[in-house]
Write a structure and sequence with these properties.
Layout (H helix, E strand, L loop, with lengths): L8 H6 L2 H14 L15 E2 H11 L4 H12 L11 E2 L13 H4 L22 H10 L6 H24 L14 H4 L8 H4 L16 H4 L8 H16 L4 H7 L4 E2 L1 H21 L4 H18 E2 L4 E2 L2 E2 L4 E2 L18 H11 L37 H13 L3 H18 L4 E2 L6 E2 L5 H17 L1
Antiparallel strand pairs: 1-2, 3-6, 4-5, 6-7, 8-9
Bound molecules: (2R)-2,3-dihydroxypropanoic acid.
The site of (2R)-2,3-dihydroxypropanoic acid has 5 residues, from loops.
């Protein structure tokens, strides 16, 4: 947060014990027996990157469940290597979530697991990094079990990364493309507005549907109806292609290279190198893969004239100019050149993301606060999220930017203290939005606070 709150980081951390207890309660209440729901009402199934974030935080007090969380998710991995964004829970009521399994029809793909409905798209591959973090938290008495778990998971994590490096990189750019904004995990981010908003849904093309999210969250907090229409239209196109990667890539009007998605992929590749070393496999291919992603990230997504990383719309071969949270993702690359790290830190500390004024302010908004369409309440169009805070915090620490990293933790603590474990927060007044008792907010809060304490 910027100084007006006057809440010093060390103090915020030392007084967070009550919040840590509540975080644990949230994770307990959302545990289903095999995985953790992101939230009770809005997201009643298993989500891919949610489970990875949740496992990281849960590992501090229940490493066994953290391991089970990831194993449950990977049971639904497709034979192509793709980890689906949603694994549907057959015990959830049919009207609990839209679009549900009857809309996705994942069984149309021969690569989908039989008898286990999933979505037909993926999400950012944070899982190898999460697995490494979970292993690091294993209590001494569980080290052998944790290593055996890593060894079981390793081939699946490798397959996930290989899928993205091949099926999702048809032009050999070194970068994986996403075919739906939902694959980014930051669905309605302005990062791809210019491309996404060009998609015109043909009149009468979609059968009528009812948005269930609006029964459970304020419409002003959620993506607009117009964006939702495009989300469902893209889903339908992908379903028509039976989720065959080559056909989907040929058909999808949305084909985007996201710097955050690819930075996460790179970070996970480094984690795989470490995991390989721990279980007696060869780390070299992972280091080589990370090196290739690094070259492509810096070579193709860094836009020097703007001094930031930009999403790359492959359909139109254009770099998207919007200044969003995706530009900070490449901090996760340990080999990022210092001049680029410095440029990112300048931007993070600029009035676009950290205005200096009289009122309170919380880090890190997901969109430039000076943009005309910045919206402090609507989903990924401005609010602070604790998962992106966690990613940026990791990236900053990796590059020795401890002061800014500590401010992010202090802001996260202040937000949770003010509004609870909400899904996201208004950076201007700290009010909470979206779901309440949101699992990854509880998990990543726990991780940031306890990791910072053990460093102290
Ligand atoms: C949603 O339903 O809002 C999710 O972000 C899509 O996976």
């Amino acid at each position: 947060m910027s100084d007006p709150i006057g809440d010093d980081s060390a103090e915020a951390l030392s007084t967070a014990d009550d919040l840590l207890d509540t975080a644990r309660d949230v994770l307990e209440a959302n545990w289903t027996g095999r995985y953790t729901r992101p939230s009770q009402a809005l997201y009643p199934h298993q989500w891919s990157w949610d489970s990875a974030f949740i496992a990281v935080g849960r590992a501090w007090h229940d490493a066994a469940r953290a391991r089970q969380e990831l194993e449950t998710l990977f049971e639904a991995q497709w034979t192509s290597g793709m980890v689906p964004s949603i694994v549907f829970d057959p015990t959830a009521p049919a009207d609990a979530y839209f679009p549900g399994p009857e809309i996705w029809q994942s069984e149309r793909s021969p690569a989908a697991p039989r008898g286990r409905p999933t979505s037909g798209i993926t999400q950012p591959p944070i899982h190898a990094r999460a697995a490494l973090e979970v292993h690091r938290r294993a209590p001494p008495g569980q080290r052998a079990a944790s290593l055996a778990w890593l060894a079981r998971l390793y081939p699946r994590l490798v397959a996930q990364q290989r899928y993205l490096a091949t099926a999702r990189d048809p032009r050999g750019t070194g970068l994986a493309a996403i075919v739906h904004p939902w694959e980014s995990g930051i669905d309605d981010s302005p990062a791809w507005d210019r491309d996404f908003h060009r998609i015109a849904v043909p009149a009468g093309d979609l059968p009528p549907y009812r948005r269930r999210d609006l029964d459970r969250a304020a419409a002003a907090d959620r993506p607009t109806d117009a964006d939702y229409e495009r989300f469902i239209y893209l889903l339908a196109l992908e379903r028509e292609a039976d989720y065959d990667d080559a056909r989907v890539i040929a058909a999808s009007p949305f084909l985007m290279v996201d710097p955050l998605f690819n930075a996460i992929r790179l970070w996970s590749e480094h984690a795989l190198a470490e995991i390989a070393g721990l279980i007696g496999a060869d780390p070299a291919p992972h280091r080589a893969a990370a090196g290739e992603i690094h070259e492509a990230l810096v070579g193709k997504l860094w836009v020097s004239a703007r001094q930031r990383f930009c999403a790359w719309d492959l359909r139109r071969d254009q770099r998207e100019p919007e200044d969003t949270i995706v530009s900070f993702g490449p901090l996760l690359d340990p080999d990022l050149p210092p001049a680029i790290v410095a440029a990112i830190c300048r931007e993070l500390a600029s009035p676009s993301f950290r205005p200096r004024g009289d009122g309170p302010h919380y880090l890190v908004p997901t969109y430039d606060e000076r943009a005309a369409d910045f919206d402090p309440e609507r989903y990924w169009r401005g609010p602070v999220w604790l998962n992106t805070n966690w990613l940026v915090w990791h990236g900053l620490r990796q590059h020795g930017q401890v002061g800014l990293a500590d401010e992010i933790v202090a802001s996260s603590v202040a937000l949770v203290r003010r509004s609870g474990f909400r899904e996201y927060f208004d950076p201007l007044d700290g009010s909470g939005h979206g779901s309440d008792r949101f699992s990854w907010s509880a998990a990543l809060f726990t991780d940031m606070v306890l990791a910072n304490r053990s460093r102290a």
